Amino acid sequence: MCSIKDFLDNCDNCSDDRYFLNVVPLKEETCILSEISLLKSDITSQLRICDIHRNIIIETTNKRYRRKNCGVPSVNVILKYHNTTKAGDRHVTPEMFQRIVTKTGIFIPIGTPICRLCREKLLGNNSIEHVEEFIPGLTAWRYYEAKKHTANVGVGLPVKELTEKKVKINIDSLEHFIDFVTSSHVIKD
Ligand SMILES: [Zn+2]
Ligand SMILES: [Zn+2]
User: Which superkingdom is the protein from (predicted)?
Assistant: First the structure.
């Protein structure tokens, strides 16, 4: 029997081919672990999975990716950020899943549709998910480099305030100047 069977509700038996979880590609390994509320560690690397249960988990995740409404409030009673149905505009990716667990300790399964409000509540205003809405094409690498830069060097140069300066002109000098430029001393065409 593989290690995953006990976590799943169905009674399907394992297939004969059992292998260690850490030979599965990393993203998929994260998905499988997210399904049984675990994070990758030395201990989880010792778990074994079979093809039957691997496929069951892949299918469950794919089904979740096909859903449209934000599924965060139904994951856990402490996540009632909205009572009404809201459309999710993203799905929880393996990266987002890990950031949410690290920040909040809450496992939101990969593929769960998530709305903007729930992302803000779970990840905060400074998260890459929030910032990339305003900077299209922002990559995780650029985001974290910029954060590093801010931590080491400080924020970028402040935007210069343009001040309009009014210059007071002495009326006598002004009249003198006008007299001069309109006088016959200045050659005019
Ligand atoms: Zn199995
Ligand atoms: Zn939501």
Answer: Eukaryota
Distance 156 CA to ligand 1 centre (A): 53
In a shared domain, residues 104 and 142:
yes
Q: Give the max Cα distance, the chain.
A: 109
> Is 102 among the domain residues?
yes
pLDDT digits (tens, 9 = 90+) for 89-118: 999 999 899 999 999 999 999 999 999 999
Task: Answer for the pair 61, 31: CB distance below 8 angstroms, yes or no.
Answer: yes
The count of domains in the chain is 2
- Residue 126 maps to a domain: yes
Cα–Cα distance between 65 and 54 in angstroms, integer? 17
In angstroms, what is the span from residue 20 Cα to ligand 1's centroid?
Answer: 11
Beta strands in 15-144 (DSSP E): 18-20, 48-50, 90-91, 113-114
pLDDT of 151-172, one tens digit each? 888 777 777 788 888 888 888 8
Q: Residues 17, 14, 36, CA angle at the centre, nearest 5°? A: 105
| Residues of the domain holding 2 | 1-66
CA distance 131 to 140: 11
CA of 87 to the centre of ligand 2 (A): 8
